[in-house]
Amino acid sequence: MSFFSSIKTFFIRNTYRIEGYRLRSYFNISNNKIDAIFSKTKFRKIIFKIFFRTIYFFKYILNLKPNIHSIDFNLTTRCNLNCKDCASLMPYYKAENQWTIDIETFKKDLDNLLLYTNKIYRLKLIGGEPLLVKGIEEMLDYACSKKKIISIIITTNTSIIPSDKLCKTLKKYNKKALVELSDYSNSIKISKCTEIEKKLKENDIYYFISNYEWFECGKIYKRNRTQAELIQIYKNCFQSPCLSLFDGKIYNCTKAAAINRLTNFKFDEQEIIDIRDIKIRRNALKKFYSRNFYSFCTFCTSSQKRVERGIQTKERFNIT
Ligand code: SF4
Ligand code: SF4
Questions:
Q1: Any ligand 1 atom below 6 A from CB of 88
Q2: Å from CA of 150 to ligand 1 middle
C-alpha cells in the first residue's frame, strides 16, 4: 500500500470517527467542555475539523500513538441467549471452547491496551452476556478509574437485572459509565428491559436502548477471496468500524476474534495485535488502522440482508 492510501485509510478508519465522536452531544455534555463549545455551530465545527485533522496528520507522520474511537472488550463467550445472527458468533462456541476473563487478567489487558494509545473514547464491555461475568463491578470500577478512557458502556441483552453492587459502581461514575440495553423483546420471552430501565432510572444511571439494524450472519466458511474482494467486502461491512479485544488480542471485529479462536487457520500476524507481547510496538495500532482488508473477511457472507434482532436458534454451528 502506498503512503497516501495508508494515510487515507487511517483517516477514514480512525481520525474521522474520533472527530465525529467528539462532536456528538451526549459525549460533550458529560465529558468534554472544549468539544461541547466547538460542537455548537457549523462554523465552530469547521474550525475544529481543520485543527483536528492537521494535528492528526502530524501525529501520523511522527508515528505518535493513535487514539481509539471505540473498542469492544470481550469479557466472556458465555451467553444465556443463542441468537442466530450474533455478530460475535456465539452459536459457534461449544462447551469446550467457552472462555471468560478473570479480574486480574482484565486489569493487565486493560493496562497493556492503554500503552498503545493516549485515549479511548468508548470502551464497550461485551460478551456473550457481560452480566454473567463474576467481578464485573470490579472490572468496571478499574476501567472507570483510568483517565485515558473517556466513556465505558456495558452492553447487556436485558435478560439479567443488574445487581445492586453493579448499580452502585455505575452510579459512582455516572458521567462516564453507561448501560446499553439490547432489547430483543420482539424475539425472546425473557427480556426484562422494562424492569431494568426502572432500576437504572431509580439509581440515576445513564442508559440507552439500542435499536440498530441487524444483518444476516450467513454461513461462516473459508471462501478463498482475492485481495480485491477482501477490500470490497471489508469496506461494505457494517462491522468494519469495530475493533475487538479478545483474550489479549486486538482484532478488526468480534467475528474475526471468534474465527481465530475457533479455527486452525493461520492469519497474517499484522492482522492481529497481541497486546500481551512485552515489546510495545508503537506502530502496531497505526499499521492496523492503515489496513484496508483483513483475511478474516474471507469467511463472511457478502449479503446485506436485514434480519430481525435476536432471533434464537437451538443449533450450534461449525466453521468449515
Ligand atoms: S445476546 Fe445474542 S447477540 Fe448478544 S452475545 Fe448473546 S447470542 Fe450474541
Ligand atoms: S470479518 Fe470482515 S466481513 Fe466479517 S464481520 Fe468482520 S469486518 Fe465484516
A1: yes
A2: 25
The whole-model pTM stands at: 0.95
State the span(s) of the chain assigned CATH 3.20.20.70: 71-307
Under 8 Å between Cβ of 237 and 223: no
DSSP string, the chain: --HHHHHHHHIIIIIHHHHHHHT-HHHHHHH-HHHHHHTSSHHHHHHHHHHHHHHHHHHHHTTPPPPBS-EEEE-BS--S--BTT-TT-GGG--GGG--B--HHHHHHHHHHHHHT-S-BS-EEEESS-GGGSTTHHHHHHHHHT-TTB--EEEEE-SSSPPPHHHHHHHHHTTTTEEEEEE--TTT-S---HHHHHHHHHHTT--EEEE---EE-----------HHHHHHHHHH-TTTT--EEETTEEESSHHHHHHHHH------GGGSEETTSSS--TTHHHHHHT----GGGGGS-----EE-TT-B-S------
Ligand 2 centroid, distance to 258 Cα (angstroms) = 11
Kindly report, residue by residue over 213-256, the tens digit of the pLDDT: 999 999 999 999 999 999 999 999 999 988 999 999 999 999 99
Q: 235 C-alpha to center of ligand 2: Å?
A: 9
Share of the chain above pLDDT 90, in %: 82
Closest atom of ligand 2 to 254 CA is: 6
Q: Report the CATH number of the 71-307 domain.
A: 3.20.20.70
Q: Give the span between the Cα atoms of 240 and 74, in whole angstroms.
A: 17
